[in-house]
From TrEMBL, chains A, B:
Function: Catalyzes the reversible isomerization of glucose-6-phosphate to fructose-6-phosphate.
GO terms classed as biological process: gluconeogenesis; glucose 6-phosphate metabolic process; glycolytic process
Residue stretches spanning the membrane: none
Protein name: Probable glucose-6-phosphate isomerase
Species the sequence originates in: Haladaptatus paucihalophilus DX253
Length: 430, 430
């Protein structure tokens, strides 16, 4: 894949970064690369995720899901990193097997989905490393109950993806369910290339080896210079732009199939780098649609943001019929793909013309290989950025307060955080 | 509906706003309200949108869509404000009639959707005020062609929503298609409560009078003080928080059915206020899911953001079966709704505990009335904020550059913007 930083340079944009500044930053990139390589060599927590293209055993995944070869639908019960990697692949790639995700505990949504599914034709994958995630376990209990009500033997239709110990592991042991291991040292948001992200894709019939091949190609390009590694080019440029005022990073793919990828990126970026008062705020956008929604702000609002464009350079096209509608003759006889390409190039240029920094990421196609490249590239970019910010990339301590408060509110123990909920300050207008 | 600013006060949050500062700001709110009322009284461009609860003729809408009473699916072909209002209602409310939207020109997505639809059972609504929007017209040409290929008489299955003149109006006249008028003085992003947003809902069998009733109730609450009007309370508070450093506004509903509402809000806020170097950047989030994705950043990242929570206080619930899974007994016997409520309150409190400003918006239910209230409230809040920022709320001049460039690239005329596309600065790493 290709990363083009041309429109992030200070000759184009403000904030922008000079070539000299990038060269100076490259010394820190070299050091960070060394740190990352050491972490990878020692399979340290987090860094181990960058080894997944080599360490993931796709045969094991295929064999675990073999009992579900007849499934017409795969339902992943998981939240955050336990769902977004699989969802990125599922929504990025076509399949005759539909994929659904229970990644929220909205009762109306859960009921509507369960009413729609033919549970006897569904494979259910319950994903939680700890086996204690409240939302996931609650949804699992509801799904299991729905299967029993539908006279479906849930033990025939369920497998788990979890750590070596915990509730889900015990459950799998007790009921002899197929179980996949969440690998050690891989935080949820970095787990797409493991059992966590690939089991759903395997059931959908996707070539999960090709996903890893694409990732492997990017891993091979990691090097001690941002000018030699697409991942580090992106990670270093975003860090430099943030330092210069671009605290917002709008991820704007020009492909509907990459809409979930933008959500996956938002988690990766926010949860890894958002700490110690640092970190860009990721914004999810979609080309060309959001030209008619967000572009006014991106061009004419505060100069506090950068836009990351992603596009495949090849895609199946569809022609636009000729037309005699006055003023629209120029569209007729063209194609939707050409129109989308023109919109992309025009939008990119329009941001440059108004001095708003932007970066272009290109893959050949939105296919297994391309998604593997793209996601690995951004994971490595994120790890590099974490080194440059000097934050603890692989933890997320700030979410614990709310988990304890929620657990206390639900009667799951005594937590002082729950008491603070009752003390809410109010100023109500109605 | 209720707006609670308690967690936006400087006694809780930083940035935060003091009660005194709100009182001082209230003098400007009174002036702005007067300006808004004058604009409404004169049906001025933009301000006229706040009169839609009174001026929209729902009988006209129902009668225009009557030929499509048998439709199993309604397909809206439109982009930006021509789609998002209708999509907010369609995705917010249950219906036996499915709604789809062609709001992008991705050829793979368009082909996949058209392959899936039974076009003879579909009502197609082509929406463009000018009748020249490239994406919409290109998609219409493709849809019409697909209907002809499927031996469906497109003139039987199509209606248009457009201005008094232009291509779509001419097309409707020539082929005797049902046509709805886009009302004068109503920019796309403010058009949900007009023909533009309500035709799709009418075909889906929703009570569009109730949508307007909810909006009307909020219109009646507009008053010369932010302490008396939920809409102005929200508009003034966001403005004050932005002035104090909260340049990002994360819209985080706790209801899956409000996911598209957050996109609608993002357009309203970005395109209306994003000008002259001003305007908050809207971020779309979803509770409880994004607690596992964005919350780490919101709590521990830069203090440059506020979170807007939206929740219905009533919803259909679903119980969680009892369980003997160790450590999860506290979940069993509860309900998904209680869990979601606890997550909401815990997350809100967790942001307050770390000093991050947040605002709570509450409606009774996600139904026609509630959506009418909510969306009108935010439209009026946006108009108020525009007055406080002193920006031209109802225009979007910054998107024109890219439109001309794209048109030039596609051979639709000579535009110097298109020449700049070829001069792109590059710094490629691959």
């Amino acid at each position: 894949m290709r990363v083009d930083l041309g429109n992030a340079l200070d000759s184009v944009a403000s904030p922008g970064v000079s070539r000299d500044a990038l060269s100076r930053l490259d010394e820190r990139v070299a050091d960070a690369h060394e740190r990352i390589e050491t972490g990878r060599a020692d399979d340290e927590h987090g860094y181990a995720a960058l080894n997944l293209p080599e360490t993931t055993d796709t045969d094991e995944i295929r064999s675990a899901v073999e009992p579900f070869a007849d499934a017409e639908t795969v339902l992943t019960v998981g939240i955050g990193g336990s769902a977004l990697g699989a969802a990125t692949l599922a929504n990025g790639l076509d399949s005759d097997v539909d994929a659904y995700f229970l990644d929220n505990v909205d009762p109306e949504h859960v009921s509507a989905l369960l009413d729609r599914l033919s549970l006897s034709d569904t494979a259910v994958n319950v994903v939680s490393r700890s086996g204690t995630t409240a939302e996931t376990l609650a949804n699992f209990l509801v799904v299991r109950d729905a299967m029993e009500s539908a006279n479906v033997d849930w033990t025939d239709r369920t497998f788990v993806t979890t750590g070596e110990e915990g509730n889900l592991r015990n459950l799998a042991d007790r009921h002899d369910l197929p179980a996949l291991d969440v690998p050690d040292g891989v935080p949820g948001r970095f787990s797409m290339l493991s059992t966590v992200g690939l089991a759903c894709a395997a059931i959908q019939g996707h070539d999960i080896d090709a996903v890893l091949d694409g990732a492997h190609a990017e891993a091979d390009r990691l090097a001690g210079s941002l000018f030699e590694s697409p991942a580090y080019a992106y990670g270093a440029a975003t860090y430099a732009l943030d330092e210069r005022g671009a605290g917002i990073n709008a991820m704007m793919p020009y492909a509907e199939s990459l809409e979930t990828f933008a959500e996956w990126f938002a988690q990766l970026w926010a949860e890894s780098l958002g700490k110690d008062g640092l970190g860009q705020t990721p914004v999810r956008a979609l080309g060309a649609t959001d030209q008619h929604s967000q572009l006014q702000l991106y061009r004419a609002g505060p100069s506090d943001k950068m836009v990351t464009f992603v596009r495949p350079t090849e895609r199946a096209d569809r022609s636009i019929p000729e037309t005699d509608l006055p003023g629209l003759e120029y569209l007729g006889g063209g194609s939707l793909g050409s129109l989308l390409s023109a919109e992309f190039e025009a939008t990119e240029a329009s941001l440059a013309a108004s001095g708003q920094p932007n970066v272009r990421l290109e893959i050949d196609r939105v296919d297994e290989y391309g998604l593997g490249e793209l996601c690995y590239c951004l994971e490595a970019a994120c790890v590099l950025a974490g080194e440059l910010y000097s934050v603890e990339t692989f933890v997320q301590p700030a979410v614990e307060w709310g988990k304890r408060a929620a657990r206390g509110l639900l009667g799951g123990g005594n937590f002082e955080e729950a008491d603070e909920v009752a003390e809410k300050s109010t100023l109500t207008v109605e």
